[in-house]
Amino acid sequence: MNKEFKKIIWPIAFIALLVILSSFLLYGLARMEGQEITLLKSLYMVAITISTIGYEDMIGTQGSRLLTVVNIALIFIYMIGVAYAVSNFTAFLIEGRLNKFFQLRKLHKRIKRMDKHYIICGAKDIGVYVARELKETKRPFVVIDENPHVLDAIRKEIPDVVAVEGDPTDDNVLLEAGIKKAQALIAALESDKENLYLVVAAKDLNNGIKIASRFNNPATRHKFVNAGASYLVSPNMIGGMRIASELVRPATVSFLDTMLRSKKHDAMRVEEFQVPKNSGFIGRTLLDVHQETGVLAISAKCPGSEDYDYNPDPLMKLAADMVLIFITTPDKRILLEEKLSR
């Protein structure tokens, strides 16, 4: 249950319980004093006491110090309980907690509907670029970060982003982000220590999940591999390769940058697809794939082989677990995945 919601529910539950107990208490005491009274009249007495209406004294307190003291005590207890409940509810409304509560409920419903999505842990620096690419290629994802200002920044850039505020290394936060149904997790936290702990935590919750992790110190690489990271990326290494590529192959870098950074609806991307074992296209040719989807493979890797066949023969037949590489748009990629998965 949400913490903000608890602040409203508990005082109300306390008052309701107190009403029930008070009704039975007054009923019992009145009967001990020899008064003829029903539980309904006892409940009515409690109701007019709480509401301060005070039509009449349903239970005779004259001559009974015990009943008088109990009534006085109940009045003060109710006053405190009601005041606490009202103050909490007022704060709930004034401080925007009610709106936040409904936003969280909507967020949880969206995450529950997700399946085979990506979880980005850390929305600063590297994480925001990952989110942009997943958004551009129409892949479902959830962002986790414990800094609300970082999440506000990414919400401005991607208004419909699914963002969870919390510590990415916390099991409860990962479960809230739907790690049980996620297909991949990106560990983009700032330190190797945090990312390594995150890899271990994620694998413990979902052993089959693929994890791509950032690492800074080359000496920690083997630790990430042993912990279960599927892919490792060093920002320093990538940055160095980028600088060298800018100098020796500037046109190629410009071509790839234009393709990857395009904001157009039909932006091109280099995509990959592994043919499922139950695909209806097994035994058919790459030409058949092109004719039905408009997508042409630029490379293929047969199962059991480490080598890629560049510019493959259009008459090459598809096999289970074959990896195909394409240059295509996000919409055509989705069409290709749907066709070849049937």
UniProtKB/TrEMBL annotation:
Cell location: Cell membrane
Domain RCK N-terminal, residue spans: 115-235
Segments crossing the lipid bilayer: 12-30, 67-94
PROSITE patterns tied to this protein: RCK_C, RCK_N
Gene3D superfamilies recorded: 1.10.287.70, NAD(P)-binding Rossmann-like Domain (3.40.50.720), Regulator of K+ conductance, C-terminal domain (3.30.70.1450)
GO MF, any single term: monoatomic cation transmembrane transporter activity
GO CC annotation, single: plasma membrane
SUPFAM superfamilies per the UniProt record, alphabetical: NAD(P)-binding Rossmann-fold domains, TrkA C-terminal domain-like, Voltage-gated potassium channels
Membrane-topology annotation of the record: Multi-pass membrane protein
Taxonomic superkingdom: Bacteria
Pfam families according to UniProt: Ion_trans_2, TrkA_C, TrkA_N
Protein keywords: Membrane, Transmembrane, Transmembrane helix
Occurrences of domain RCK C-terminal (ranges): 257-342
InterPro entries in the cross-refs: K_chnl_dom, NAD(P)-bd_dom_sf, RCK_C, RCK_C_sf, RCK_N, Trk_Ktr_HKT_K-transport
Example of a GO biological process term: potassium ion transport
Name of the protein in its database record: Potassium channel protein
Species this protein is from: Candidatus Edwardsbacteria bacterium GWF2_54_11
